[in-house]
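hiii so my PI (J.) wants the whole complex modelled not just the main chain, which honestly fair. so below is everything: two entries, each one labled with what it is. i double checked the lines twice but i was tired so who knows lol
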Amino acid sequence: MPSLKDVKKKIESVEKTKQITKAMNMVASAKLRRAQERIERFRPYADKYYEILKDLSKGVDSSVHPLLEPRPEIKTSCIILITSERGLCGAFNVNLINKATKLVQEKQAKGIAVKMIGVGRKAAQAARKIEGVEVMNSYVGVMDRFDFTLANQIGKEIIKAYEDHMLDEVILVYGQLVTLLRQDPVALQLLPVVQPEGEKEEKSEPKALYMYEPSVEGLLGELLPRFVKVQIYRGLLDTSASEHAARMTAMDTAAKNCEEMIDKLTLAYNKARQAAITAELLDIVGGAEALKG
Amino acid sequence: MASQIKLEIVTPDRVVLSEEVDYVGVPGVMGQFGVLKNHIPYLAALSIGTLYYKKGSETKYVFVSGGFAEVNGDTITILAESAERAEEIDVERAKKAKERAEKRLQQQKEDIDFARAKAALQRALVRLQTRHRAGL
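here's the output for the full assembly
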């Protein structure tokens, strides 16, 4: 039986852990709110891009622009993995890394060489560990504070490599915020650009026939690289929001577990205390009896 | 007023502007063009430049860089990588950026650096110009 002092110490330490997890939960929820606001602010911009690209690429052959055209043979594939910087957010990062690892193995089984770019410390660490993968670049320490410049940087790097035929395909793996309690790892093909069309029934006629300046090809040349960056930025924002949502849930569970543990320990403490008192009473009574005798 | 057109300027981080205005002057890659209500549907790439709009007797200026203008009937949407209203422009920062870019241009290292520095210089200059045109 553990001594009273030990149990008391243990209770105190669990109590402190609980305070920390609770604080982390609150911090995560504040950060989540901010991340969600950013997504909201970004949405009009991103939606407009989809819309314009859809209008523009309608009836345009994929051969007009190199970023649209699928390569006849895929030799090298690049996987961009976005995770958080820190752990303590449940299985969030693990899920993302597993998704990426599986994808890598699938590609490798087809004889495709795989390169990776890790965004976030956890992703950078994971990329180094996955077998047979060449790490192109790592962005570490960026997920806590980023803006469109980061998406710009990553976008430029992969577009350049793609245009130089170093890569034939680029896939983005990120965490999508489905609900506050659910974050799914998602793989999205960045390059060649998938034309956002044909999914919904095309009932509505083309809204308007646009006049273009410069030509359609010229515009696509401007628009496609930006579209890639918009998608990367969306991935970054979503991953960041997902991370905070995951951490919130994880910390909430942790705080609850602490409470449970404290309850159990308190019970053990009380039992031990009672046992000690009983033992002492027995001693006294025994002593008194002996004196009488 | 019936003759007004809705101007929306959106960047990845925020909606910079959403207003009913009389006239918009847009810096397209092939030159400045003006937009009034009932303009033909139009899609144009933008250069780094100053956009201005008129509302009543007021004329206001906005710095835009890297983006598109979409005109559709009674709305014009500007999608820009960055956009700042004249009064929001940080003059000190622009001046510093200008100096940095000029220095880099003098050194003339690599082609890529050169192109980037040139773009940075232009952004800084246009920012200052925008501010100047707005009379601030």
